[in-house]
Amino acid sequence: MSNFKAIIIVTDAPHVKPLINVIKEEIQKLHIDDVETEVIDGAILLNIAPPALDMLLRDILNPDHKPGHITLHTNKGEIQENTDNIIHLGSSGNYTDFHMTDHQTIKESGTLKDFLLKLSSNFRRPHYEHVINIFYIEDFIESPDGRRGDFIMTEGYIVPVSARRKPEFDELILLVRELKKRTTTNIQPS
């Protein structure tokens, strides 16, 4: 394997073998094909397509994750939407806009607070007008004063993080930065 599309984890050597076994089990469970794995100096390297990587990371980082469904009302009637397809929610007073992975936006009657109660723990509220699905965070841009910032989400959505709520997200921001740093580094084995 000459080019790696992802570096999952760099860890101490004794932990690599159990972790690679967990990764291989998850790959089988998710029915992901065409994945190559290699271990070099404690780094677990994968050659894997980005959507499959997202699913794999989601299941490893949140083993209790179970795809849920939420009922949404559209002009075509009621639909059951898989919550894994929601990138983020935006507030418009007593209405909520659901921004989906298929570029669709669904406007629904109800407040963010109402919908947040129906969603799993991977949905967080960084701002009074927004709820995000943490699995679709691509980057974080901090404000010059460091008190607030913006999450850059899949599909180019920009979601603000308020100064009041930023401390709740500091750990997640560090994880996003670390994953971005590791996955954008192209490592060539020696």
Outline the structure in words.
This protein has 190 residues and is of the alpha+beta class. The chain has two domains: 6-65; 69-179, LytTr DNA-binding domain (OB fold (Dihydrolipoamide Acetyltransferase, E2P), Beta Barrel). It has helices at 13-29, 50-61, 112-116, 166-184; strands at residues 6-10, 36-40, 43-47, 69-74, 77-82, 86-92, 95-100, 105-109, 123-127, 130-133, 137-142, 149-153, 158-161. Strand 9 and strand 10 (130-133) form a beta hairpin. The radius of gyration is 18 Å and the shape is globular. The relative contact order is 0.13.
Give a brief rundown of this model.
28% of the residues lie in helices and 36% in strands.
List the helices and strands and how they pair.
Blueprint: E1 6-10, H1 13-29, E2 36-40, E3 43-47, H2 50-61, E4 69-74, E5 77-82, E6 86-92, E7 95-100, E8 105-109, H3 112-116, E9 123-127, E10 130-133, E11 137-142, E12 149-153, E13 158-161, H4 166-184
Antiparallel strand pairs: 1-3, 2-3, 4-5, 6-7, 6-10, 7-8, 9-10, 11-12, 12-13
Q: Percent of residues in beta strands?
A: 35-45%
Helix-strand string: EHEEHEEEEEHEEEEEH
Strand order of the largest sheet: 8-7-6-10-9
**N-C termini distance:** 11 Å
What structural category arises from helix and sheet content? alpha+beta
The largest sheet, given as strand count, sense and whether it forms a barrel, is: 5 strands, antiparallel
Quote the average pLDDT.
Answer: 78
| Overall geometric form | globular
Proportion of helical residues: 25-40%
Give the quaternary arrangement of the chains: single chain
CATH class of the largest domain: Mainly Beta
Spans of at least 5 consecutive residues whose pLDDT stays below 50 are 186-190
CATH architecture label of the largest domain: Beta Barrel
Number of strands: 13
CATH fold descriptor of the largest domain: OB fold (Dihydrolipoamide Acetyltransferase, E2P)
As for the number of domains, it is 2
CATH superfamily of the largest domain: LytTr DNA-binding domain
Radius of gyration in whole Å, from Cα? Answer: 18 Å
Summed up, the helix count is 4
